[in-house]
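User: Please predict the structure of the protein below. I'd like the answer in structure-token form so I can feed it into my own downstream comparison script.

Assistant: Understood. Taking the following sequence of 143 residues as input:
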Amino acid sequence: MHAELGRLAQNAEELKSAMGRLQMQRGAEPPDIQRIENIPGRRIPFDLLVDIPINAQTTSVQQGTITISQEGPFVAVARYATFLSAFSYQVRNPANGNIATFNGRSFGRYRPIHSAWDLNDGQPYTQLVMAAPPPGSGPIGST
């Protein structure tokens, strides 16, 4: 029994010694790692916008560029892709054949790239369930 107790005590001492070495290694920085906090420069968060016009019949890859300041490190924390809707539709007057062009409900709005097909865009306001008329549209039913 004394031999077993002595062996367990020795194992506990070895485990304690190993844990002490692990804590020392965890706190030490590898010499080839440079942290961004240690790089001098300005730290100002800002947004960059790249405007890439895409025409209706464009099927090729399109790209845009931005200029990033050299005054300090640049860290991109997020990227977003949206499109600026230019949806418009035409209505032909059956009486005289004149064609009128109207902007869709999403015209001029930044939209997520997955919502390019807005089923409500071409619907008259009288057929849409809305909490309030869009700004600048005047009273409902006005001409």
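That's the full token string. The radius of gyration is 32 Å.
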